[in-house]
Every structure is written in C-alpha cells, then in structure tokens.
Amino acid sequence: xxxxxxxxxxxxxxxxxxxxxxxxxxxxxxxxxxxxxxxxxxxxxxxxxxxxxxxxxxxxxxxxxxxxxxxxxxxxxxxxxxxxxxxxxxxxxxxxxxxxxxxxxxxxxxxxxxxxxxxxxxxxxxxxxxxxxxxxxxxxxxxxxxxxxxxxxxxxxxxxxxxxxxxxxxxxxxxxxxxxxxxxxxxxxxxxxxxxxxxxxxxxxxxxxxxxxxxxxxxxxxxxxxxxxxxxxxxxxxxxxxxxxxxxxxxxxxxxxxxxxxxxxxxxxxxxxxxxxxxxxxxxxxxxxxxxxxxxxxxxxxxxxxxxxxxxxxxxxxxxxxxxxxxxxxxxxxxxxxxxxxxxxxxxxxxxxxxxxxxxxxxxxxxxxxxxxxxxxxxxxxxxxxxxxxxxxxxxxxxxxxxxxxxxxxxxxxxxxxxxxxxxxxxxxxxxxxxxxxxxxxxxxxxxxxxxxxxxxxxxxxxxxxxxxxxxxxxxxxxxxxxxxxxxxxxxxxxxxxxxxxxxxxxxxxxxxxxxxxxxxxxxxxxxxxxxxxxxxxxxxxxxxxxxxxxxxxxxxxxxxxxxxxxxxxxxxxxxxxxxxxxxxxxxxxxxx
Length: 593
Known about the structure:
By secondary structure, the chain is α+β, with helices and mostly antiparallel strands. The protein has 19 helices and 19 strands. Helix 8 runs antiparallel to helix 9, helix 10 runs parallel beside helix 11 (316-326) and helix 13 packs parallel to helix 14 (461-473). The longest helix has 42 residues, at 337-378. The protein starts with a helix and ends with a helix.
C-alpha cells in the first residue's frame, strides 16, 4: 500500500456509502458498497484473502468514495457506477438488470404494473427498490389484492374472476368515473410513503366483522394482510436520492471551506441517475460566493456534460448571473429531494476535505519547492506552463502521441492532447516527436494561444533533438526551452538531458525528482491509455468484423471489457454471453481457436 492510500484510508468515514478502488492509471477497477466504509475498505488489507482478492489488492493504488443515507441508496449507486465504469473485478450487471419499480398508470382506468424500465409518460413510478429484505414481486401481488384496479391490459366485453372476488371495479361492465379511483390512488401513495393507516383501518374493520360472523378463515386472511402491509411499509419509509424520477441531466453542487482552502463536489445525474462525482480542493482567495461563481463558470465552459439544471446554495443575484453567463438554469432548492441531495453533496465535500487536506497541503509545499528547484536548474524565472510529451506504437503500427499540461504545478486536463501520427512514412521516435511538436505549436501560433514556458519530452537526446528541429522551423527554438527525462536500467526516472548533451542526475529524495517523476508517470498513463484504446479498436475490429451477426454495438461492448484478443480467447462462452448473444459467443470462440 502506498503512503497516500494509507493516509486516505485512515480518514475514511464510518458511514454507509460506495467505494471505488483505482489502479495506478486512475482507472476504476472495483466498485463496492458498505454499511461502514472505514471497516469495509480496511478489510481488504487486514484479513486473509482469496486468490481473486489478492490480485485486486495488488493493483489498488487509490480510492474514492461517496457517502449516502442508507443501504437502499448504496445498492442503487453501486449499480449505477458499475454500469458506468465496467470495473474488471466486478461481476458486471447486464443492461436489463435494473432494480424494479411499481407503477400506477395514468390511464382512464388505471392499473398497477411491475417493471424494470422507466418510461416517464406511462404513469406515477414508485421505487426503484434495491433492498433485499422482501420479495418485491410479492409486494406487488399484495397491492393487486388490496386495490380493485383493473388487471387486464385491454378492457374486455365481459366480467372476469377478479370482479367476482372483489379485486376489480369492473370497468368492462360498469361505468366507472375517474373520481371513483381517487381514494385508492391516495391510499397507494400513502402506502409507499410508509403511512398505510387507512388501509390497515379498513382491514381491521373487515377482520373484526369476519370474526363476529365466525368466519375465522377470512379474519385470518385479513390479519395476514395487515402484518404484510406493516412490514412492507417500514421499507417504504426509507427514501432514496440516487435514481430520480426524471429523464433529464441535473447537477447538484456542494462545497466546504477550511481555513484557506475550499472543497467542491458536483453530483451529476444523467437521465435521472447519479453516475458521476466531480470533486476538487483549491486555494480560496477572497469571498466564498465569488469563488464558487468563478469556478462554476469555468467548469461549465469546459465540461461536455451540460445539465438541464444546476442546484447550488448561492444568493439569488449569483444564481441569476450564472444562468445568464452559462445559459443554464441555476436554482437554490429550499426543500424536497434536491435540497436533501445538496446537503449530501456538502457532506461529501467536507469528508473529501478531511481526507485530503494534509495531502493537498503537502503536495502544494512539495510542488512549490520543486518549482523553485526547477527554476534554478533551468534558469527560468517565469515557469508557469509546462507541456510534456510521450509517444507509443506497436511494431510501427497504431502510432500515437500524447501531451499533458502542468499549469502552476497542477495537471490541467483541459489542456491535454492526443495525436494520431499522420505521416505514413514515419517509423522512429524521432519522426513521431518531430511531427507531434510541429503540429501542436503550428496550431497554437495560428490560434494565438499561450505558449508553454518549458517543453519536457519523455526520452533522451533523440527526442529532444526532434523537438528542437520542429521548434526551429517554427522560429520558437529560442523562445521555448526543451529538456528530456531519461530513465535508468530499471525504467525509473533518473535525470534531465539538455540539447547540449549535458545530463543532470537527480537526487531521488528531492522535491524536483518527485515532481518530474509524477509528470513522467502521468504522461505515460495518458499515452498508454490512448494507445490501448486505439490498438483495441483496430485489433478487435479487424478480427471481429469478420464474424457474421456481430455488429458495432456488440463489438463496443467487448471493447469495454477486454484488453486484447488473448483475453477473449481465454474467456468461456458463458462469460462472453454476458455481453453478447450465446450463438455469437460460440462463433467468436470458433474463430479464435
């Protein structure tokens, strides 16, 4: 376990929620739920493990978590995040395996339906139901017995058994007015709110009457219904704010201030489901309200997932200003679900601050020290923006480049760039670096963008010379200095190489070594992630497109789950059948034999 992970684990709250294990590249490799996040996450490192868990733990490098209100919320959020991230150590949920709802249709003669699909215009939805304490279909059957709503999908011309046993009002033979359903619809609504007193009162009256008439079988049936209702209503009173009855995208923003820092958490609901948590700690200068305004303007200018509405605790004047500048609808909820979610976002912001405060402070101090050391080594006074490059290819194929940006000591992912090598004759690291550097700064000059104060290439003198050649042709060689990061025989960062062939070996205990090593790790992660995706796309599609019946949608599913053809070849037909039809899975196995 690395030091940063150990530090975070000690500060995880003892609350219910969902945790996400991440690997060295920041990929989510496992999503889990817990009644007590602290205890559950520590179990991975404190108790004997089976083979699969041992492999998982060996790959864990970081953790993230979201605190929720109850077990129902943790189950729903876990399902959402597994579907989004498709972690390789989870047993993946199938696309049709959502949690169930019970619906009262908005038809003239309403029905009760049991479904796993949410379609807004059908009627009023209750759920989804995730807790495993009772069989939801049994509860659905209970409701069908209690309320005389029609059971048939199409109204017939003659009465049926349900009418004879008083479980349907019989719109097939009677002229039932809409207001005759009002009492039942109100009782159903109260039932799902955990308040079934009217239903229970009616059943008690029926039980008493049956007992007086010595109809003990009927009395017993009514008492059993009463007990079932009381048990079910306990669970109905447990609310959830993970899957909302909405088809729209909405963001809820919470924040927390400690000393001179602010933590911001944004919960993003995509199609009504909580799928993403964006979080950040930053230095706070001046007024909190003003800082939130500035942050949200930048965030929604740069993000691709634009919500229909955004909820945040700000003054009306700030909300109006944000709405005008971003063209989004900003609101400050005063009650209801969105207020509850906002409070939970603020709680998560506080917990994020508590678990990362010292790490942020330490990183800031190290970065400041590293910047000062790097300025002295390179004699650069105005070191504010650094671009770092890495290249990757496989036997001259799938040639790509990647660039990351470090602005004032922090990775600025909005400035990251990916490159596919266009020169078909390029067949060396020198040629790849030359092309990428020239393309990037030719574009920046044309668009009058701010140039970096330093270019770092992941490699030795060959890569440095390629960058210098491109910059010379663009008349930038005297403006932007270039250095390379060389590695030792163990493939670890070792030193800095200059265009004049001078090499400075770095002290591995120094701040500048840690800073540059992190940069090298990040650019390699970014490049290899892009490279793997590209090689997966080309290698998979060239083989899988030859299989009859396997379309682009199914190929995309396989691309999300397997890193290479060998892994598909080793997978069983049953395993592959989780993502595609069984006959197609057999065809794939036959193809790869």
